[in-house]
Amino acid sequence: MFYEPKNGHDLPHNPFNAIVSPRPIGWIATRGADGQDNLAPYSFFNAVAYVPPQVMFASTSSKPDQDGTKDSVANIRETGVFAVNVVEYAARDIMNQTSGPWERETDEFALAGIEKGECETISCPRVLNTPATLECKLTQIVQLPGEANFAVFGEVTGVHIRDNCLVDGKFDVTTFNPLTRLGYRDYSTIREVFSLQRPGE
């Protein structure tokens, strides 16, 4: 089949998210200027540069108690920092608990019973004992076409790695099985890896 998104797809559910998958999940921790902490997962997330290391995530909806966006973006606008926590398979249920449309005053760390830590290079909370956390300073927020679509870019200023995720000097994803987002309400996890050499290597 072929369809133009502007004309609809005539399917029971939108296939776009299922086509662009699997996607890593950025579990974004922020703190508002008022000191209120927030934690929410975003599946439009990825690394975008090596030197300096940079990441991005996109928020695509809004809440009535924020100015056309969600708590994460609103907090980053105020403070200029955020932390990206890696989601392991074992944390799938508590991650999902933090995805709800909770009120601004809700601390999702407390709501889901998540142990909270402090970042080293920025004033921001982080998920303790997660496989890795990237501390980030905002570089830019880009408003994308469409209502409430914002891409947030940040430079990584600090990296936390859980000790048992390092095997022979490498960050080994098979030690914790990263959770990935598919389409619809579907998720998957990485349990095995293989390597390929580029031509000429």
Main sheet characteristics: 7 strands, antiparallel
The termini sit apart by: 39 Å
State the strand order across the main sheet: 3-2-6-9-10-5-4
CATH homologous superfamily classification: Electron Transport, Fmn-binding Protein, Chain A
The tally of domains stands at 1
N-to-C SSE string, H for helix and E for strand: HEEEEEHEHHEEEEEEEE
Structural class comes to mainly beta
Q: Which percent band covers the strand fraction? A: 35-45%
Tell me the CATH architecture.
Roll
Total number of strands: 14
CATH class term: Mainly Beta
In round numbers, the mean pLDDT is: 96
Enzyme class: oxidoreductase
Keywords: Oxidoreductase
Protein name: Flavin reductase family protein
EC number: 1.5.1.-
What labels would you give this structure?
201 residues; Pnp Oxidase, Chain A; globular; oxidoreductase; Flavin_Rdtase-like_dom; oxidoreductase activity, acting on the CH-NH group of donors, NAD or NADP as acceptor; EC 1.5.1.-; Split_barrel_FMN-bd
Could you explain how this protein is built, in words?
The chain has 201 residues and is mainly beta. It has a single domain (22-189), classed as Electron Transport, Fmn-binding Protein, Chain A (Pnp Oxidase, Chain A). Helix content is 12%, strand content 35%. It has 4 helices and 14 strands. It has helices at 16-19, 71-79, 92-97, 108-112, and strands spanning 23-24, 26-31, 37-42, 45-49, 54-59, 81-86, 116-118, 125-127, 132-143, 150-161, 166-167, 170-171, 179-181, 187-189. The strands form 4 sheets. The chain has a 7-stranded antiparallel beta sheet with strand order 3-2-6-9-10-5-4, with helices on one face. Strands 1-13-14 form a 3-stranded antiparallel beta sheet, with no helix packed on it. Strand 11 (166-167) and strand 12 (170-171) form a beta hairpin.
